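Can't attach files on this board, so I'm pasting raw text. These are the components:
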Amino acid sequence: MPDRNSILVCVTCRAAGEPLEAPAERPGARLYQALMNVVARRGAPVDLIAVECLSVCKRPCTIGFSAPGKWTYIYGDFAPNERAAETILDAVALYAATPDGLIPWKQRPDALKKGVVARLPPLAPRNDVDLPEAAE
Amino acid sequence: MPDRNSILVCVTCRAAGEPLEAPAERPGARLYQALMNVVARRGAPVDLIAVECLSVCKRPCTIGFSAPGKWTYIYGDFAPNERAAETILDAVALYAATPDGLIPWKQRPDALKKGVVARLPPLAPRNDVDLPEAAE
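---
Top answer:
Structure tokens for the assembled complex are below.
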């Protein structure tokens, strides 16, 4: 499996009570576009994965960090703009630097501390045959 | 990859404001024990995976459904008892019967409709080489 770190982006996220926007105008889609802009500008080594609904509808905009063999994290409460995209890209660089997806608490940006929705342990390796431990 | 369906169980889940229980007395650990009892009684073909914190601390008890190639779902608000465990086992049987983890809305039990915390698309296959489409 490649060692790429991914940002999942809910492109259907929208604020409750707002009139229904066209799909491309939804806050989630706008955050996805902002992330694409910042990734392109930085040449960041990360995959952006658009997802139709991460089922966190009460905390738009919602994203996730995922990579093979790492904990997956889901975060909410992001604004649909480039400033939020910059924060997310800074944070995924910290995630990418960990072996297991666990960013030490003291290094964790406030947006991740406050915005955490859920996390999941690395699942894929659990289903494979036993692999030798990394030398660390 | 085996085609097993898993229930992730947050064994550290506890109610806010309660005195700190011994680990085995935490609501999450009690739900895990109740699930083990019901799985054994039914001979249910499901893996129980104990997880130390799914980071959904405001909605105990929290669980997840996961299987290779399927959407992963995270649910909260379960009581730590065998009645909840029965509900969860009934629901995971519906999940197991789907090819993609998406239980049709009309079939979805109320506990899953109200308790959903988040969902994630199937990630592992996305990182593999292109596989031929199933004939369907």
